[in-house]
Amino acid sequence: MFVWAAQKLWPLILRTTFFILLFIGVVVLQGAVVTGLRAAGWSPGAALSLSGVVVLAMVLAVHFAVRFLRQREEKRLDQQRQALGLPHGPCCVVWTPGPQEQIPWDVDGQFQLNYPPAAQQLKVEGVAVVEFQVGPDGLAKNIHCVDVWPAPVFYDAAVTAIRAARFKPATERGPRFGPSYRVPFVFRIRGASRRPDAGHRVKAKPATLSGRIAAEAVRRLTNRQST
Prior knowledge:
Blueprint: H1 2-39, H2 44-84, E1 105-107, H3 117-121, E2 126-134, E3 140-149, H4 153-164, E4 167-169, E5 181-187, H5 209-226
Antiparallel strand pairs: 1-4, 2-3, 2-5
């Protein structure tokens, strides 16, 4: 419920703020135009009419400017979606990790994993399973893609984070070099994968008495014909 409210409330706040600022701008502009025209010797009716035309022109200009910017942003995102191979519309990942071997390495410092910007704006989640080795210098090498969904851009983000990381042994004894490790990277948008199911659930109705009688009659007739 909180996720739904946050996703619905923020656009509503932005839209309300925009209309409040637009209203204030209309009032200020109309007052300034009327005052200037009256000071220039215009009659009250003519000054009010002209100020109305100016305000209308300003509102239309703001409307078409916002519409143009929105369409340009949507076109830019769609071009990025096609270039990156992302699916149409939002996409959620429900990931249940299976039993995995504990990797004998820790990341020295903070691990920087950046969400692909275009996928985040389009609300597309993804997962990438990466296989790699750790060299004596603590850097990853021989990086391979085991699986990625729904687009390779998530694998690219995981590889960038792995190459920038420096690993250190998780134990004092230290691991031996050579084995490969598989690590899943799950990209989730906060709250998107935990939305409740929409729609109504349909409960199966119990069989009626007439239906049971008919089924029993058919069963007896079939047994009688077989004998």
